[in-house]
Amino acid sequence: MSHPVRLAINGATGRMGQALLALVKKDPRFVVVAAITSAGSSRLDQPAYPGEDGLRYSRHWPEADAIDVVVDFSGPAGLAEALTYCEAHGVALVTGTTGLDATFAQRLAASSQRIALLRAANFSLGVAVLTSLLRQAAAALPDWDLDIFEAHHNRKEDAPSGTALALGEGAAQARGTSLRESAVYAREGRTGPREHGTIGFSVVRGGDIVGEHEAWLMGQGERLELVHRATDRSIFARGALEAAHWLSGRPVGEYDLDAMLAGRALHPEA
User: Fold this and answer.
1) Three-state DSSP state, 118
2) What is the pLDDT of residues 123-144, one digit of tens each?
3) 40 backbone φψ class: left, alpha, beta (φ>0; ψ -120 to 50)
4) What is the tens place of the pLDDT at every residue in 69-89?
5) Active-site pick, 152, 213, 228, 245
6) Is 89 a catalytic residue?
């Protein structure tokens, strides 16, 4: 693409939206055409970049042919609006919105028949590679014990993390099973010998840890450790921007970070 990728950021006043705006300002590959926010936002019509004229937070989507990719980190209602716009104008969509029910998931699948769509629950490129490596290792070493460790800051409310569960589910599927059948979330007291084929989880909550995930595959006389440590929350926004750049101009269809990473490996210049 000869011109910078033209973005609309949906959910622009949220934490991810703010991180995206900050990164895009320094990245010549992109230009933000629209910063979409909710109708009740206190920042509606205010400048997206304080002290600068031009881009403002808005409820109004641009006219046709003004956008190449919508990057969405809003909520189910905001994502529904983005889908409607993208389908009407043939605009690609990158979304990290979660908490979607089965009906909405079906709508996303149907939308991928009309637009280029990439969605992920975690946009860390390192985590995407870790997930792929763990699937390969779990399949190649089916008889080895597997435990997943994760650590996050003391304000995180859910445990294990969604990323840890996704890692475990990917490993379980690689072994022809599921977390419902194989997960062990707690060990206490006299638990007896480990049951073959189980996947254990351990959780740490403390301080300001951004996010750490480890997978241990343990055999007789040897152990394989796969580790990812996040030290900067902006990695998730960076990953979303990489996805938007890669998705721009792609054919209609549903994509994920695995497809993006594979495409970049085959065509590093893309």
Assistant:
1) strand
2) 999 999 999 999 999 999 999 9
3) alpha
4) 999 999 899 999 999 999 999
5) 152
6) no
